[in-house]
Amino acid sequence: MKNLVIIMLLFFGAQELVGQQLDKKKLDQYFEALEAGNKLMGSVTLSQEGKVIYQKSIGYADLDQEIKAKPEFKYRVGSISKMFTAVLVMKAIEEGRLSLEQTIETFFPELENASNISISQLMSHRSGIFSVTSRPDYLSWNEHPKSRDGLYKLILDGTAVFDPDTKAEYSNSNYILLTWILEDTFKQDISSLVEQYISKPLHLRNTYIGKEASVENGEVYSYKFLGEWQKAGETHMSIPLGAGAIVASTEDLTKFIEGLFAGDLISIESLELMKEMQDNFGRGMFKIPYHDKVSFGHTGGIDEFKSMLSYFPDDRLSIAISVNGSTIDPNQAALTVLDAYFGKDFEVPSFKDTNISSEELDQYLGLYSSPSFPLQITITKDSLVLNAQATGQPAFSLTYEGDHVFTFYQARLTLVFDPDQDQMTLKQGGGEFVLKRNAVEK
Fold first, then answer.
1. Which residues contact 48 (CB under 8 A, 6 or more apart)?
2. What is the pLDDT of residue 430?
3. What is the pTM of this model?
């Protein structure tokens, strides 16, 4: 099954990959093609042993003022912030202020199961606390400021989704609560804690807890593509706090994770505790695979921003990508940069001038399967982008080529739809499979 289709090809490889001379010119052409095709706006930094070996910015920081993106510009990095918060928690533990097994009822006596929820369980998403950002009404208030009491009441309003430590499930509430624990413990706000314990020691001049975005301050705005780029709404930073309020340049992100793994922020013993995995969750980080290699890091998303930060310990290699507008999965761009570094072939895409409406995409949605094909393929959409997801694999974005044809060039995959017959033909590597639509998901 691993030699068939889909994301599998991106994450598994049969041979050891070896870094070689980076083809920067071809990588530039790749990103310029994404920019020209309205596929991506953002920045990427690749660093080895503390030295930037590739950096590229495409698109705009502010379309209204026609301000182009620059490498030093800062992006909202969403849940990558959790790595910063986890570092601060480990710092508090090293200083004897907190402990991993300490329960949280003294901080939050009103919270359901508080006496059975530990600091460690908050860090590794094993608390069972409902994620406040999953509330059905979240988008009706996320752009407005919230006091601590107001946000806490919303967290209390959600009932537990499972008993503590019986499983893992991602919840932003965990890291909002950790923010308040840190603030109460240190008697400092999260902004000053990030500056004192992370930004200053590592000389990060473009990393801090964000406020209202300001292009005059070198920050970028996020955009969604609806036939043209349109400015997106802006989450008020009083809400995500240590769960998602960090603003940073991609170069600063690589410096942060390199400093973390070098022991410049916390001890290596504390880092190992962050790296411990249970049900695929560490304490503030994940394992992120690439072929036969493993990196550690985190992804992030807030408004239309999408980010990824990852470090390969064996190669002393870090990569950070922050996107403020995309019509493809930014993961594809990150993988292409890694392909270039590790000597794997990659293509510079050529995007045709094809437009398709959100309503037209509806005809392709559904669950496709075939007795001759081992995986089911679910087709969904996100605004003007069609997404595909194979059984047990991450979703990936498709590029419309016209005449019911979509491609995923990273895996040299082509999907040809026949809506009238409720079927889809999947083509890759000389193989061709016809899958029937079993259910429609709109």
1. 19, 315, 316, 317, 318
2. 77
3. 0.83
